[in-house]
Structures are given as structure tokens and as C-alpha cells.
Amino acid sequence: MDLKDRLARAGVLLAPGVYDALTALLAQQAGFEALYLSGASIAYTRLGRSDVGLTTQTEVAETLARITERVELPVIVDADTGFGNALNVRRTVRELERAGAAMVQLEDQTFPKRCGHLDGKALVPAGEMCGKLRAALDARRSEHTLVLARTDAVAVEGFDAALDRAERYLEAGADALFIEALRTPEQMDAACNRFGGRVPLLANMVEGGKTPVLSAAELGARGFRIVIFPGGTARAVAYALQRYFGSLRSHGTTAPLRAEMLDFEQLNAALGTPALLALAAQYDVDPGADATP
């Protein structure tokens, strides 16, 4: 599915956060139309670290390439600040587009950045961000590779300044907008009233974060076109693994949690192992093909 075409149709697009090929595959099997590759979740799962700007462009591109090789869904990719200045942004967009990105998200924080729901963020000047957005648009090979502009100004400069920055980013050519960490339903409505009829607007739902968590249907009714739950997958997995490891350590067996696990056959079914083995069998060598007559 082409993401640009999907966003031109009616209906809110719900994209769950994923962080590797397995989570992407399971999300596709659940019936989602698009995925969100969360930079925070890459930090959580690949590094075991917080979202404070420690991940690299290479790690994001490698993760994305493994996902797009396994699933057909369009992937919105969190590219943080573009990992540097405008020239870095050009290279980042080229690398992520080559790895299969449908939409590349860029934010206006300084480098190193930090999670949009952590305190202590700092911003680059709006003019610098506009230059980075123009670099991103110039770098893409296809107009179907979309550029999503995110501003973190609500926490740093205030809500009105965030709207002004978003306006400038739209004028710079951004294909979609993301105003991070909106604090109230009233701020959500104000953002949608200003931008919702002009450009796809993204809502970010973070469990325990600064933005009220609403359903995709509620957010769509307000005027958002894209809804992401970027870190929910990692948080759910972390919770399950805490229970799993704690139980295994206490009981010395997985038996108490068997009802909450896939067994060997179920996991292989989800992974498509039977089909993969059938494909391999097509390439088996005829044992008599090289025999001497």
C-alpha cells in the first residue's frame, strides 16, 4: 500500500510502534495498515538504554531494512533530528528511503535529542529546521517518500510558538505535521482547527506521557489523520518479560506461564515456517541428477 494514497483517503490511520522484524510481522498479521518504527524503541531494545540520542542513523536504517524485507506495510520512520545538520539530513533521508521508508520523521530538537515526553529539551532555530526540511525534500528520490515535520516547542517555547513553528514547517514543504506532547484536549482541538484541513496531522499516544491518551476513533473525530502508539509495544513486551523472568527464576520452569506463551508450533506458524520449508524444498537437488549413467 502506498502511504501517500492512503492518507488521501478518508479515515484515521492507526500505526502501532514496532522495533524489529518480528514485531512488524505480528502487527501486519493483526491487520494494521501501516507501522511506526520508533526511535525510542530501538534505543530500548537494541541498546537497553533510554531515548536520549544514543542511537545512530546506521542502527535505524539497519532495523528498517530488516522490517521492510519481511513485511509489505508502509513504515513511518523516526529519524530523530536527522542525526546532524542539513547535509546529515540529506544522507539520512537517502539511506532510509533506500531501506524502504514510506515517511521520514524529522524533529526540531538540538542534537543529541531526548524523548519528547522527557523534560530538559532544547530546540534549533525554526529557520535551521526549515533548511533541514528543504534538504530532506531535495534528497528524496520519490515524491511518494513523505517527510513528517515534528516540533517539540510546546515544552520549550509554549503552545502558540509550537503552532507558529508548525506553520513555518508546512510552508517549507513538509508533507505532514507532528506537534509533540500536546497537554490537553483543548490544545489538540486548536492544532486540528488550524492544520487538520490542510495537511495530515499526527497524534502521539504515550502511556504515562504528557498527552492525554485517547482512542484512534476519538482522535480521528478531532481531526488527526495519523495516530501512533510508538512505545506501547516495547512497554508491553517489557512487562511480559518481567513476569516471565520472575516466574522462571522462582519456579525453575515455564509451566506457570504456559497459557500466556506461544508454544513451539504456534510460534513457527506465526513466523511462516511451513511455507518457508516448502519453498526450500523447491530448490532441493535431485539426488540422481549427477549420477553417472
How is this structure best described in words?
With 293 residues, the chain is an alpha/beta fold. It is 47% helix and 12% strand. The protein has helices spanning 3-8, 21-29, 39-47, 57-70, 86-98, 126-139, 153-156, 159-171, 185-195, 216-222, 232-251, 264-271, 273-281, and strands at residues 13-18, 35-37, 75-78, 103-107, 146-151, 176-179, 201-204, 226-229. The chain has an eight-stranded parallel beta barrel, surrounded by nine helices. Helix 2 runs parallel beside helix 4. The protein is globular. The N and C termini lie far apart (52 Å). The mean pLDDT is 95.
Question: What's the gist of this structure?
Answer:
The chain is an alpha/beta fold and 293 residues long.
Record keyword descriptors for this entry.
293 residues; eight-stranded parallel beta barrel
Helix coverage percent of residues?
Answer: 40-55%
Strand order of the largest sheet: 1-2-3-4-5-6-7-8
Classify the beta-strand content into a percent band: 5-15%
Q: Round the mean pLDDT to the nearest integer and report it.
A: 95
Shape: globular
How many β-strand stretches? 8
Largest sheet: 8 strands, parallel, barrel
Q: What structural class is derived from the secondary structure elements? A: alpha/beta
Query: DSSP helix count?
Result: 13
Question: What is the ordering of alpha helices and beta strands?
Answer: HEHEHHEHEHEHHEHEHEHHH
- Rg (CA only): 21 Å
Oligomer: single chain
End-to-end span in angstroms? Answer: 52 Å
Low-confidence segments: none
